[in-house]
Amino acid sequence: MLLSSIPTPIEHDWRHIENISIFESNESLLAVPNTQNLKQLPIYFDSNVKHAINICVARQSVIQKLQQAADLLPNHLGILVLDAWRSSAVQKALQEKIGDNIKTIYPHLSVDEQQQLLSDFVAPVRADFISPHLTGGSVDITLFNRETNEWLDMGAGFDEPTERSHTHFYEDQPTHPACQNRRLLYSVMNLVGFSNLPTEWWHFDYGNSLWAYYNQKSHAIYGAAHWDVISRQ
């Protein structure tokens, strides 16, 4: 597969995104399957984030497209899903967790500057806003080696709130393994219809307002979704 460079990002503005119309498709949330080249690891549950569930679930079409993307990879690689649908309670917990990380990493920034940086990595938590992960249309993923089960080098840790996490960060270092690995992940996801959040190499969307924003769609097809934790875990 010929790997194209990752384009210069367009900054996202949550104020514009929240005004996009939603024509709900009513697709179901389903568990991400574990196949040879598509697996899940619910990373927030494993790291004891408050309210996180012990399974990754997403809309039916999202899962189908994930499998299509995985099938485009070289035979020794696969896609690992770290998070997908996310409740508002988990979203709030992550805002607090990543906000604390930003305060530690960037103590020289003002409170307003820290909040602006936080908005690059975590969607707002408000009663009148549907965050991308709440729709079941967002997935946080990485690539893994099927022979060793090791994660590929992406040049920045998952949820790392630094510029290294910006998807195009390594484009000026084309020989760096992270540049090629990011290009590969970006390419297969883009080919099957996902959009990428430019500040996070791991975050991809389909069907929700963030996807509509980056694909210049007139509307989204996924609004807020709900997973019955008690009866379905």
Protein architecture, described:
There is one protein chain. The chain has 233 residues and is an alpha/beta fold. Helix content is 32%, strand content 14%. The chain has a 5-stranded mixed sheet with strand order 3-5-6-8-7. It has a two-stranded parallel ribbon with strand order 1-9.
Structural class: alpha/beta
The largest beta-sheet arranges its strands as: 3-5-6-8-7
Sheet having the most strands: 5 strands, mixed
Secondary-structure element pattern, one letter each: HEEEHEHEHHEHEEHEH
- What's the helical proportion of residues? 25-40%
* Cα separation of the termini: 38 Å
Number of helices: 8
Computed CA radius of gyration, to the nearest angstrom: 17 Å
If you average the pLDDT, what whole number results? 94
* Percent of residues in beta strands: 5-15%
Overall form: globular
Structure summary, number of beta strands:
9
Q: pLDDT under 50 segments (min length 5)?
A: none
In short:
With 233 residues, the chain is of the alpha/beta class. The protein has helices spanning 14-17, 43-46, 60-71, 88-105, 111-121, 177-191, 209-214, 229-232; strands spanning 21-22, 29-31, 38-40, 57-59, 77-83, 138-145, 195-196, 203-205, 219-220.
Key structural traits:
233 residues; five-stranded mixed sheet; 9 strands; globular; alpha/beta
Write the layout of secondary structure elements.
Elements: H1 14-17, E1 21-22, E2 29-31, E3 38-40, H2 43-46, E4 57-59, H3 60-71, E5 77-83, H4 88-105, H5 111-121, E6 138-145, H6 177-191, E7 195-196, E8 203-205, H7 209-214, E9 219-220, H8 229-232
Helix pairs in contact: 4-5
